[in-house]
């Protein structure tokens, strides 16, 4: 019987041209690792279908290490989809049971409706097959206990668990006994009824290799302390009962906090961080903490801040909390402030000049705003930016409508007088500002015209001013043309300034 190596030598022999063109199956003769890599690019349903080709391909399926069942999208009615998801867990368990100890599973991802016993049995089998990445999305009849067989795995690198209605974590002492090799951990819908203070769980002794941590919808979580030495990325989402967040991770590069902290009572909330390598922070739809302490954020590059809108009206004490929070990010180079936070500044204009420290390293400022008036108070603390991006939100569109008389009689408007009165205070900014982009002002051109005129008249190094008015209806075309004509007629302090209307 001719071996596969003999066949390959014959195919490479130029003296057998007829055999070279005989339609020989060369793909089948490739090594298992190469074929597994090719199959990885296909949906798992297609991979299963290849197993009927021959014993060779059946063996490839039985040894295929990357099982992603989330690529199967069931069709039909809601009932048929439910039946499919309910049976999928048993199917996966049967597939895993056909494997020998020599056929390890590298990746296992699935989304299914399962019983507690079925889920635990499936996970035990996956752990026995030395799974390295486990992504579980399940729906169960009730909350369940976190499978302890996962904790004992000495091969697991990535663990993602998302369930409905949720699951309970074992005690911290149990969690600390495993996960020696885990690098990525994502937990969603966690019930912490009996351990709302996670102070000693996410430490070096518990997760010595952890690089990425994602906690989503951790119910009753009140105090979280993260001190993993190798942690590079931390994401917290929908932890609305959180009161205290402490982070001490020397290698942390990215922090994202969304919809966290108690929005009703912020007096007892606090945020502390010491992360000398932190590069990016996103603080979105999250309350202002009563206390904040940021240390060693010397590598900060990109910051996005968006507070809850309900906290726009602040007294001096609470504005001081905002100042302490924002001052911790004074080393950043790129700053994005979403509408609720900008409202805090504009509605507390006199206090803003007192409390807010200048961002002397800031290069780019992006503002999502609903009000142009009073904007100078915010620009004063950003004296060295070279790029300014303004995105108008719906608030300004609905409150300030187009008025032809006001547009063409700019010299007598209060807004123009206001901007001219700020010239000296904004002089440092006007000596650095090179690029300005303004978006979404199709129904508030009056305010934008005044701002653009001021920037063109005083921006000595301005190079590009791009205007994106947004959607116009058919009747607004002529209005837009008049708007462009008026802008083009303004004098320019910089000979290099170029206008663009998009």
UniProtKB/TrEMBL annotation:
Positions of region (Disordered): 1-26
Domain of life assignment: Eukaryota
Pfam families: F-box, LRR_At1g61320_AtMIF1
Residue ranges the record marks as coiled coil: none
InterPro entries: At1g61320/At1g61330-like, F-box-like_dom_sf, F-box_AtFBL13-like, F-box_dom, LRR_At1g61320_AtMIF1, LRR_dom_sf
Biased composition regions of type Basic residues, renumbered to the chain: 1-11
Biased composition (Basic and acidic residues): 12-26
Domain called F-box: residue spans: 24-72
Protein name according to UniProt: F-box domain, cyclin-like protein
